[in-house]
Amino acid sequence: MVRVLSLAVLSLALLFTGCASKVDYGDAQARETVTTDFGSTDLQMIAAKMVDDMMVFPPIVEMTRDRRPVMFVDRVKNKTSEHIDTESITDTIQSKLINSGKFRFVDMSVVERVREQLEYQQDSGMVDQSTAAQMGRQIGAEFMLYGNLSSIVKRDNSTKDVYYKFTLKLLNIQSGIIEWSGEKEIRKTRKRSLFGL
Amino acid sequence: MKSVLAPLGALLLVVMLAACSNSNMARPGDNGEVELHTNNSLLGNRLSVERLREKTVGDLMYVQATLENGWKAELDFQYKIKWFDKDGFEVAPESQPWRQLVMAGRSQNNVQAVAPNPSAVRYEIWVRE
């Protein structure tokens, strides 16, 4: 009877141990290869490549030598079959470009809120007019960043191969000329192991 | 049974040791030669920095490292370039990602990076598995 009871206690202990979960912090830049889906490592590699390429392109170097051109990010069209937050990629690229001290950005996603704030400062009677921001004084963007993210997926019984191509373009809004274009390719392959695990 | 378990145990040990490996670091020495610091003997023995080149583009440092895989098989690792200002502070440490690189056996690859901003005057190249 004692032996049965001991076994039951041991089994329960093993069961609870098996169900235990642990939360821990990890390196946000560690290689992420849980699946072949688009992941954080891909995002970081793409952003770094795009910014590096743009910064050393001779016409861009010349353009940013004595001034900080104003840009805005349009969007990166997701042409893959996955749900990918492409705004996250362009946010990272935008942050790197701003922090390089070479470019400035206008943010089209906050235009309405900026307008509300300007109207409040101008019309509410609450703000000292000597400190109020004036309407019609914003700086127009000179360049637009936009691009595509596409993928080709191939698979057979044991292998899945995913090829991503990210393309980013810098367009001069006034002339319509594409001043720079960069590409980053990523290939990820998943092979099923011998026992299908 | 014992004869089966022994090789499995050895294999597990090798896998565990590989999983615990650290980073290697390369940077130009005072005499311009490549200085290689190795914490990971496995990766360090197989990978070497053949050449480091640097120039200034506008006012940004631009570096190129020629890496050589001296091993006969493919090498899959990550590298990162850390940038430092004149006072030795790392510049934008969290914005510099580890970049993935797969090198064929007995091959050379050039890896390049641009400083995040003009304050960067020195760099180190780190690699890890």
UniProtKB/TrEMBL annotation, chain A:
Keyword Signal appears in the UniProt entry: yes
Recorded coiled-coil stretches: none
Region forming the signal peptide: 1-22
Domain of life: Bacteria
UniProt keyword annotations, A-Z: Signal
InterPro entries hit by this protein: LpoB
Record-linked Pfam families: LpoB
Official protein name in the record: Penicillin-binding protein activator LpoB
Gene: lpoB
Automatic annotation (TrEMBL), chain B:
Signal is among the record's keywords: yes
Record flagged with keyword RNA-binding: no
Gene3D superfamilies: 2.60.40.3230
Signal peptide segment: 1-26
Database matches in Pfam families: DUF1425
Domain of life the protein comes from: Bacteria
Annotated InterPro entries: DUF1425, YcfL-like_sf
Keywords of this entry: Signal
Protein name: DUF1425 domain-containing protein
